[in-house]
Write a structure and sequence with these properties.
It holds the Pfam family Acetyltransf_1. The chain has 10 helices and 15 strands. It has about 350 residues and is an alpha+beta fold.
Length: about 350
Amino acid sequence: MRQPGRTAVEEPVTPSAWRVRIRMHDHPGTLARIAIRLADLECNILSLSVLPVPGGVLDEIVLRPAAGLPRRHLADAIRAEGCECTAIVDADVHELVDPSSSTLLAARRAVDDPGRLAEVLKEVLAADVVTLVPIAEANPARTESGHRAVFELGDGSALVARRQWAPFVQLELTRAGALVTLLTAAARNVSGPVVLDRPDGAAIVLRKGVPGDADAVSELHRRCSMATLFRRYHTGVRTVPRRWLHRLLVPPRGTSVLAVFGREVIGLGQLIPSASGGAEISLLVEDDWQQQGIGTALLARLAVLAEAQGITELAADCLPGDDVLPRTAARAGLRTERGVEDGAKLRMFLPA
């Protein structure tokens, strides 16, 4: 309550932070002249980012303006230096973190809660809105002069970002695209182990093979029948030479996935990218665990790893008349096709 005899004095309003985008030619001294102009207007520069664009650069400056400074006066001062002020919008404390750190912090939040991906992308792009839509409705060709961007998630959906205050520049879109790819892979746990959800409750884990698994993989081969080994190697191998084990677990340019029950390896899959852009795969499942979904789970996991690398077509050696692998591929959701010139090669295609 105001005391008698005292005059009310209004407290000064603390100026807000502004995010200012300035398009300029990349000539020596241009930024210095802009900084002098801002100092003349009593603006305090808090951060600066430089975004390369065709024909020059786009400088993004977060500043604290002088109290009462109209935005049009700031824009006029920038134009007086031969530069274009493309946007002046309100900013907050998040703008004081450099873009790389801000993106990493945002990624951490989305890893902890994948449902926040749209929110995180909105923050990273400083977008007005980010909407999750079916891929059929995304229309990535519609850019609205750079004010709209589409990021496909690989599961039949896409995120559509819109920003009216300034068009997106390529550096921002590249950074955001890399973030979406990373978070999509993290959400699908591409590199980590996966526990199979089985009705019998058996704890079977799919994980990457490492050299330390050599003995367990050797025991896997010892427990397999000659028919199972022949289907995998197309030769009458009974035991695997020690020198093969490392290549099975760490194939050149590729990776292996093991199905593990307790301490035993009961299945082995390989994914080896080829020069043509596809990948070769192979599967081996112990006899006692066949027809229990282990091969299907291994192949589905290999398909996930392939998709994360941009691979959409797999191939495997499959003897004529052998329908085990085609049926396994069908259960894993892959379309199959026999090779025209080589009937022993089975081609498998990931869903579009």
